Amino acid sequence: MKPGVRSLGVAESYHATASGEDETTSTLAGVVTRASRVADGFVFGTCTVGGTDVSDAIIDLGKRLDREDVRYVFISGIALSWYNIVDMHRISDALDRPVVSVTFEESDGLGAALESEFSGEELERRREIYRRQPARHELAVNDQTVFVRNVGIAEDEARDVVRAFTPEGGRPEPLRVARLAARAGDEWRTANQTRDG
């Protein structure tokens, strides 16, 4: 892959407040990263912890960036912000880009967890979005294992893209930098809320 090829990586951060209560809003960071590891664009947003708005929030990040040179969208996980389920198909259609979700731990899926945390319409809504998502496949990257889902791109190309954007370790560079940015943004946002409150 050419070193100038760019992708948008999206990751989130939220934590418990000083009073011990969980945040109700999660900070999202979007980072444009070249395959050569150069970051050349940042955007921030929020979504609701335990909500169903993460796909809209990611679409908003991509549209606000308005970068025609971004070829791929990487998302860290499929269930952000306490089971705010990502709709990869919807994001791919809205941004007209292939979407690759990468997770880093083995899992039997979200079915049992969703059933233990939600019921009624809240459960069905999340379950319906989750069932529409593609199955994940295991991928060895730099002697580590990640789990990949892909929409708008063939599985073999998704494997190549993940490897091309992961020069070391097991976390693709767009997601590594987005995770750092989301944490810093969340700390800044929380500190300002505490000071203003």
UniProtKB/TrEMBL annotation:
Gene3D superfamilies: archaeoglobus fulgidus dsm 4304 superfamily. InterPro entries: Endo_dU. Pfam families: Endo_dU. It comes from the Archaea. Belongs to the UPF0215 family. This is UPF0215 protein GCM10025751_16200. It comes from Haladaptatus pallidirubidus.
